[in-house]
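# step 3/5: fold
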Amino acid sequence: MFFSFQNHECAFTIFKNATYLTFEPHIHSHIELAFMVKGGSSQAFADEKSVLIEEGDLFLSFPNQIHYYEDIEKPMQVVLIIASPDICPEFKKYFEKYLPESPIIKNAANNPVIKNSIQLLLDTDLKNHKFLETVVRGTLLVILSEFLNNSNLQKIGNHNSDTAKDIINFCYENYTNDISLEKIASALHISRYYVSHLFAKKLRISFNDYINSLRVRKACELLKTDKMSITETALAVGYNSVRTFNRCFQKIRGITPREYRDMKRKEGSK
């Protein structure tokens, strides 16, 4: 995935030439918008809803929705925007009280308003534009207006997956430690069986695979520099042995941690 721009002050991140979407289940307080510019397809999940994103489709996750992607066909070009809802306060009440019946607009590229807004982002120099926040805010306002206008909204009830969100948050905060189903169940005062069942049925991933995906993703960040050895990296992300780290890393990434580091060194020297 090619990183294009991240602005912490304005609380938005843009990937305008993303080449994949696959990502483990996660949750955050931001809006996440994915527009499939061309090629490829991905299965996207927002809470318990599953949709297929194909060329020309627009997917939107509201704040605090558990969401993730499973790519089906590559190559692809995706515009991905992750932004704080504060950037569009006009829609605050919708983000706080409602969820869309469907998180996708099929064939959104046929809507000239959405198509032109995405093209504006593709044509914008994200690093040097003096009024980038204004451009992003204007683009999001237009796209969100069209999305909400073409969506059936449902009021959020009390059955809004709070326990699932607590489990996801606990994993994110503790995956580098000695974490287990038993420790999650004890910390959140729920049954071990329920935690296991939630991963299998709601998140469609086993607990061990999920923790490994979090650890390997963090390891990739650390391996891009030479600040830590492979062994130190393994320990830093929660593995007790380099052998286990190597096995899990290769299963997820298809190459060893050392090969990944060498690859990033070569990319950086170009």
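# step 4/5: annotate
The chain has ten helices and twelve strands.
# step 5/5: archive (pending)
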